[in-house]
């Protein structure tokens, strides 16, 4: 079990460029999440998905898009990158079910710099 | 807006001491509570979850929950230098798909 994997680990973008951050999980989890973490600011939810074909906005969705065509994959698309999107991005997943399946498991993260 | 508050620290404790990390939350309907450990440059790692009032122990870690006071804490006994990290408190409401995270408390265990 690889758990949650993310690619790339690091990326530098120029202002206005676009890119896709990849996230894959092999735990057959229904729920998947994208967070960004800025220094001293905690984790902010960007988008989440409760299953293939179903996505919804989190707290900070502007400038991002997602899709969920399979249970395993949940890519995050940045269009027209801006310096404000410089951050560390984490993907997470959790099982569907009762209270004891609330636990979210995180991927290793992607460190993105926009200059 | 749901809020989770933590003292940002840094909290410094000597090796072998008990480290006490605290977290308060604003949503009285919150049902699930988690502690994540995050080493510098790494991703958050789940170390404890607690769902009912009282204490839950796992090795050197004890989570304590008091829903009436809207307070959750993490005790680390016999603290080791390897425990030096940022500890994130996370809270989920009933039937919610989402976690709300605190900003984290940085713990430093001094040898």
Can you give a write-up of this model?
The complex is a heterodimer of chains A (115) and B (111). Chain A has 115 residues and is mainly beta. In chain A, 0% of the residues lie in helices and 49% in strands. Chain A has strands at residues 4-7, 10-13, 19-25, 31-37, 43-51, 54-57, 64-66, 76-78, 87-94, 105-106, 110-114. In chain A, the strands form 2 sheets. In chain A, strands 2, 4, 5, 6, 9, 10 and 11 form a 7-stranded mixed β-sheet that branches. Chain A has a 4-stranded antiparallel β-sheet with strand order 1-3-8-7, with no helix packed on it. In chain B, the strands form 2 sheets. In chain B, strands 2, 4, 5, 9, 10 and 11 form a 6-stranded mixed β-sheet that branches. A 5-stranded antiparallel β-sheet of chain B has the order 1-3-8-7-6, with no helix packed on it. The relative contact order of chain B is 0.35.
Q: Beta fraction of the residues of chain A?
A: over 45%
Question: Measured on Cα atoms, how large is the radius of gyration of chain B?
Answer: 13 Å
Radius of gyration of chain A: 14 Å
Q: Please, how many helices of chain B?
A: 0
Structural class of chain A: mainly beta
Low-confidence stretches of chain A: none
Q: Mean of residue pLDDT of chain A?
A: 93
**Number of DSSP strands of chain B?**
11
- What pattern of helices and strands is seen along the backbone of chain A? EEEEEEEEEEE
Order of helices and strands of chain B: EEEEEEEEEEE
Shape of chain A: globular
State the assembly state of the protein chains: heterodimer
Biggest β-sheet description of chain A: 7 strands, mixed
Question: How far is the N terminus from the C terminus of chain A?
Answer: 36 Å
Give unreliable regions of chain B as ranges.
none
Summarize the structure.
Chain A is an all-beta fold. Chain A has strands at 4-7, 10-13, 19-25, 31-37, 43-51, 54-57, 64-66, 76-78, 87-94, 105-106, 110-114.
List the defining traits of the structure above.
heterodimer; A: 115 residues; mainly beta; seven-stranded mixed beta sheet; four-stranded antiparallel beta sheet; 11 strands; globular; B: 111 residues; six-stranded mixed beta sheet; five-stranded antiparallel beta sheet; 0% helix
């Amino acid at each position: 079990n690889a758990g949650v994997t993310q690619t790339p680990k690091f990326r530098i973008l120029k202002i206005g460029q676009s890119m896709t951050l990849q996230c894959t999980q092999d735990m057959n989890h229904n729920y998947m999440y994208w967070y960004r973490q800025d220094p001293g600011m905690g984790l902010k939810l960007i988008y989440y998905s409760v299953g293939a074909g179903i996505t919804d906005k989190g707290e900070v969705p502007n400038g991002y898009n997602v899709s969920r065509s399979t249970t395993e994959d949940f890519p995050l698309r940045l269009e027209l990158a801006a310096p404000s999107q410089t951050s560390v991005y984490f993907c997470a997943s959790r099982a569907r079910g009762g209270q004891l399946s609330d636990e979210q498991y995180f991927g290793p993260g992607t460190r993105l710099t926009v200059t | 807006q749901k809020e989770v508050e933590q003292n940002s620290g840094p909290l410094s404790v000597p090796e072998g001491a008990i480290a006490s990390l605290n977290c308060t939350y604003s949503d009285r309907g919150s049902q699930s509570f988690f502690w994540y450990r995050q080493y510098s440059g790494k991703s958050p790692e789940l170390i404890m979850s607690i769902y009912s009032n009282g204490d839950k122990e796992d090795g050197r870690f004890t989570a304590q929950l008091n829903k009436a006071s809207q307070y959750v804490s993490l005790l680390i006994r016999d603290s080791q230098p390897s425990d030096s990290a940022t500890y994130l408190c996370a809270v989920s409401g009933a039937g919610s798909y989402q976690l709300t995270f605190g900003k984290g408390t940085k713990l430093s265990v001094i040898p």
